[in-house]
Amino acid sequence: MLGVFAEFETNLRRERQAEGIKAAKRKGVYRGRPPKLDMAAIQTKLSAGLSPTEIAREMGISRGTVYKNAEGQRYHRGADCMKKPPRKRQPSASKAPAQIRGKVSPPRNLNPELCDRLRRDMMKACLAVAEAHGLTVEGGDLADIDLRHSFAISFRVGIPQEDGAIYSPDKAMFEVLAPHFGLEPSDYGRTFRSKDELFRIVAINPNRPKYPVSAERVSDGRGFKFPADHVAMYLLRSD
Asked: Could you tell me the pTM of the whole model?
């Protein structure tokens, strides 16, 4: 609390000082801080033939200060002639005028139709770039959808196999383990409904005997775990 009052008082002093300076300037009595260095003395000594080193030693300043305040002068000391070389400016490269494109105003909110259209456009563009390098793209599913602000979308780029798909370790493991849990190898990637929500099978984990099947909710990509017998029942209902 004391710090707040101290800061408040400091701000008041600054405001009063600024107001006083403005009033003095209007009256013509404020001339600011007097200069510490006599420029005329430097010019006089240079005209007398003293070198910058001698002037700096005599006046208690640096040679850089002498050069700075007498730039462009020619200094003589006996037969020697010293001149501070002027700074050369690099020619600036001409910049091409930027093309002004019409900026599309952002929508107030997202909607499912817009999200799906964006997903298709981005999938098409990503696939075109990947195919130019001999690759392929999978995924493009939406996740973490917030119609007020944003959504997430993910792509998987890889070398296509003989069937055109990208090798997936989760898929390979699912095809091997599925028969041990009452499922078919082809069930990988299938969708089923549970409590009026649509899910997609994405993996199987033998380290979870009670809930071995991993599935993601299609609407937002959130992951869930299911018992294998429940998933088999849901798939039968969806056929």
From this structure: 0.42
Tell the residue number behind the tokens 């798909």, with chain if given.
165
pLDDT in tens, the chain (239 residues): 567 667 777 878 888 888 888 888 788 776 666 666 777 788 888 888 888 888 888 888 888 887 777 655 555 444 344 454 556 666 665 555 555 566 788 888 888 888 888 888 998 999 899 889 988 888 787 777 788 888 888 888 888 888 777 888 888 899 999 999 999 999 999 999 998 899 999 999 999 999 999 999 988 788 999 999 999 999 998 87
Question: What's the chain look like in SS3?
Answer: CHHHHHHHHHHHHHHHHHHHHHHHHHHCCCCCCCCCCCHHHHHHHHHCCCCHHHHHHHHCCCHHHHHHHCCCCCEEECCEEECCCCCCCCCCCCCCCCCCCCCCCCCCCCCHHHHHHHHHHHHHHHHHHHHCCCCEEEEEEEEEEECCCEEEEEEEEECECCCCCECCHHHHHHHHHHHHHCCCHHHCCCEEEECCEEEEEEEECCCCCCCCEEEEECCCCCEEEECHHHHHHHHHHHC
The answer to whether residues 174 and 203 touch, using CB atoms and an 8 Å cutoff, is yes
